Amino acid sequence: MAIRKRMKDRYRHVSFLSDIEGMKNAIGEMRGMFFPKQPPFNLNARPGISHPLPDEAWFEKTLTDKIARHPENGMEYPFYGEPIFEAPLVGFVRGDDPIFNTFKEVIGPHHFTPWEIMRWQAENNGVKPPEAHDLSVVSFVMPLTRNTKRDNAAASDWPAERWAQTRLSGEIFSQTIVREIVTDLMDQGVLAISPDVTPKFNKKRYPKVGWASPWSHRHIAYAAGLGTFGMQDFLITEKGCAHRLGSFVVNLKLAPNRKRPEDIHAYCLQYQGIPCLKCAARCPVSAITAEKAHDKEACYQKVAKSLKYCNKNYHIFIYGCGLCATGVPCESSIPKPLR
Ligand code: SF4
Ligand code: SF4
């Protein structure tokens, strides 16, 4: 997790060399590097005795408050003072939900179950790993602002500047608030871990699914009932698909608060037989088609090229695109006929 100086009244000079934290973030999210050590587990704490155990309402309130008030939820020059994200959606999945075994089949055996990643955390702290049924996953959706969505919807080849800033500063913000929550829980004697900021995390090309990571926030959010997948593979939620997602595992029994649709494409017009393909029309490299849905490799090639564009024009070290998530019927809500 990078602590990154936010530029207030000018662009960064020579961002290809000077945006060190941007570079660390980009490499970190591919290779699981440059993250700070996991917060220590307080072996002397007596969870639930000195103060009550956090419950579902605590997580919802804490995430909502952080997004509303945290100083790191902010853009930099030339949008300094604007927030990156709006109020979140929060959901929960049981640690022993059979869907995690399904993910091993659908995504691949490399995708962690909550228990696998928590075992790593527990053993590193010299404690016995909790049982899977004593774990939960907290998942959250952070919707992008109206300004960011409007700008990206107006773009046709490369991401808008607000979108690029959201991709970088928003990811760092997400890691920051999760780290704060995980640190707080570990100090209270509650094991917790954010799998995407550990050395166990890395993204690779897999034979079955192409580019994939061992912890997919999107799949976790689906498991928590927060949304379903669109043709472009973004998760369509009640706040739309223009968002960033986060999730972490806790040694607490939290009750799921949403019903997960069986159909993983329940909120996509095209998949539900209502002609749409607006996302395909937005893609500058035709990486989305009716026949093959989302071509991850073609998308990856385009997104990788955006690094140069963002550096040259926005003076930050980041790649991104998201054109297919903006200016489309599922951008800010579940499309009307499917609500
Ligand atoms: S734009 Fe249309 S086809 Fe594409 S994901 Fe959204 S609802 Fe589905
Ligand atoms: S994110 Fe990928 S699929 Fe979507 S518009 Fe960009 S290149 Fe196309």
* Major sheet description: 4 strands, antiparallel
Strand content: 5-15%
Radius of gyration: 19 Å
Oligomeric nature of the chains: single chain
What structural class do the secondary elements suggest? alpha+beta
Distinct small molecules: iron/sulfur cluster
Q: Give the overall silhouette.
A: globular
Low-pLDDT runs of 5+ residues are none
Q: Give the helix proportion (percent range).
A: 25-40%
**What is the mean predicted local confidence, pLDDT?**
94
Please report the number of helical segments.
Answer: 10
Total strand segments = 10
The main sheet orders its strands as 1-2-8-3
Give the end-to-end Cα distance, rounded to a whole number of Å: 37 Å
Q: What string gives the helices and strands in order?
A: HHHEHHEHHEEEHEEEHEEH
Structure commentary:
It is built from ten helices and ten strands. The model has no long low-confidence stretch (mean pLDDT 94). α6 runs antiparallel to α7. The chain is α+β, with helices and mostly antiparallel strands. β6 and β7 form a beta hairpin. The strands form four sheets. The chain has a four-stranded antiparallel β-sheet with strand order 1-2-8-3, with helices on both faces. Bound molecules: iron/sulfur cluster (2 copies). The site of one iron/sulfur cluster has 13 residues, from α10. The site of one iron/sulfur cluster (SF4) has 14 residues, from α9.
